[in-house]
């Protein structure tokens, strides 16, 4: 199966960490397909070398952005450029078929059967299920399609200012035409769906094949304690009601990626003998302390609020997750609905 490949994209060293976890998870589950990473010049040389240890091909592409090419000048969203870089995946014509996967995904089993699907196969987006999520999709590389996509972007733009909007408009028959192009949700389970539909997660979550850490906070933004095998401060983050997936990501990172980063001098080994990552970005550091962690900040004490106020706070992301909106309470409520 040398003419088929999994493909991912990383435009900077943070996303490379995600790509490395994804690549090593695909290897762990013994894919028989090639692994390809698209990178842009912002990726540092050492990180690129580490990528070459995990991926069969590491290919440098230019960032597609509105300043880059006259073709894209019509697009006014500055962040559009970065995700449009994904379109380069259609240029990989050395392969007959590929599965693109965001760098913030990881596999929990072998998913080579996806190569039996046709372009464009993808799973529904959890926010708008008549759109597919562009974090995992099956496609056929083709320069013709690549050019048509660029032209389409120029003429029509993208309704979300990024690749997912563009691809959904381009492959517009996805929602209605051919069910075989609808991948089951377990091939792109957004980690946020765990708390937005907990009963479904309880019923089907164990079958998850691909987890997607969709959203602005990525696994590498958390701090992980490899002694206790847990995330630091997770109790205070309302988004982590089920830390299992994040812990899996970090376990893979610590076991398979960190040793490579050490070998390439990107992280240093701690004097305690435990790996201590000193990575480039301040936000994405991992630390391991030999002493007890500092005491956690006290939970905010909110005055008693009306259900309307509570709803508004919830919608603004200010859930009282240590009190009224605690995971246990939500679970109890869901359980009563289920009975
Ligand atoms: N990406 C990247 N650099 C960036 C932003 C995105 O390389 O600065 C790539 C990466 O592969 C990432 C994908 O584009 O997984 C889509 O972005 P992201 O996963 O952050 O979007 P989300 O899935 O959270 O909507
Ligand atoms: C989505 C997808 C991601 C895509 C982004 C921008 O949330 O998960 O892959 O890059 O939208 O369209
Ligand atoms: Mn993503």
From TrEMBL:
Spans annotated as Disordered: 287-315
Reactions performed catalytically: L-tyrosyl-[glycogenin] + UDP-alpha-D-glucose = alpha-D-glucosyl-L-tyrosyl-[glycogenin] + UDP + H(+); [1,4-alpha-D-glucosyl](n)-L-tyrosyl-[glycogenin] + UDP-alpha-D-glucose = [1,4-alpha-D-glucosyl](n+1)-L-tyrosyl-[glycogenin] + UDP + H(+)
SUPFAM superfamilies xref list: Nucleotide-diphospho-sugar transferases (SSF53448)
Keywords associated with the record: Glycogen biosynthesis
Annotated EC: 2.4.1.186
Residue ranges with Pro residues bias: 292-301
InterPro entries: Glyco_trans_8, GNT1/Glycosyltrans_8, Nucleotide-diphossugar_trans
Pfam families: Glyco_transf_8 (PF01501)
Pathway: Glycan biosynthesis; glycogen biosynthesis
Highest taxon listed in the record's lineage: Eukaryota
Family: Belongs to the glycosyltransferase 8 family. Glycogenin subfamily.
Task of the protein: Glycogenin participates in the glycogen biosynthetic process along with glycogen synthase and glycogen branching enzyme. It catalyzes the formation of a short alpha (1,4)-glucosyl chain covalently attached via a glucose 1-O-tyrosyl linkage to internal tyrosine residues and these chains act as primers for the elongation reaction catalyzed by glycogen synthase.
Protein name: glycogenin glucosyltransferase
Protein species of origin: Apteryx mantelli (North Island brown kiwi)
Gene name in the database record: GYG1
């Amino acid at each position: 199966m040398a003419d088929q490949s999994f493909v991912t994209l990383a435009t900077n060293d943070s996303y490379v960490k995600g790509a490395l976890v994804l690549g090593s998870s695909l290897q762990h589950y013994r894919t028989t397909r090639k692994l390809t990473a698209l990178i842009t010049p912002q990726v540092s040389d050492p990180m690129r070398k580490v990528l070459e240890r995990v991926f069969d091909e590491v290919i440098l592409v230019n960032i597609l952005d509105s300043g880059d090419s006259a073709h894209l000048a019509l697009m006014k969203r500055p962040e559009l450029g970065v995700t449009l870089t994904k379109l380069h995946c259609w240029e990989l014509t050395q392969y007959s078929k590929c599965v693109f996967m965001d760098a913030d995904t990881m596999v929990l089993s072998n998913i080579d059967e996806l190569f039996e699907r046709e372009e464009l196969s993808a799973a529904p987006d959890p926010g708008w299920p008549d759109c597919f999520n562009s974090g995992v999709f099956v496609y056929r590389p083709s320069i013709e399609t690549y050019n048509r996509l660029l032209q389409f972007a120029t003429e029509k733009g993208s309704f979300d200012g990024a690749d997912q909007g563009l691809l959904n408009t381009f492959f517009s028959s996805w929602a209605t035409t051919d069910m075989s192009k609808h991948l089951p949700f377990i091939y792109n389970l957004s980690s946020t769906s765990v708390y937005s539909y907990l009963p479904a997660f309880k019923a089907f979550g164990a079958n998850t094949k691909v987890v997607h850490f969709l959203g602005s906070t990525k696994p590498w933004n958390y701090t992980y304690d490899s002694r206790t095998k847990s995330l630091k401060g997770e109790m205070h983050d309302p988004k982590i009601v089920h830390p299992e997936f994040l812990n899996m990501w970090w376990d893979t990172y610590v076991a398979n990626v960190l040793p490579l980063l050490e070998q390439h001098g990107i992280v240093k080994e701690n004097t305690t003998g435990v790996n201590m990552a000193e990575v480039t970005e301040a936000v994405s550091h991992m630390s391991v302390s030999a002493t007890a962690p500092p005491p956690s900040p006290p939970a905010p004490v909110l005055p008693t609020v009306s259900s309307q106020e509570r709803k508004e706070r919830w919608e603004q992301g200010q859930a009282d997750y240590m009190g009224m909106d605690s995971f246990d309470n939500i679970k109890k409520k869901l359980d009563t609905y289920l009975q």
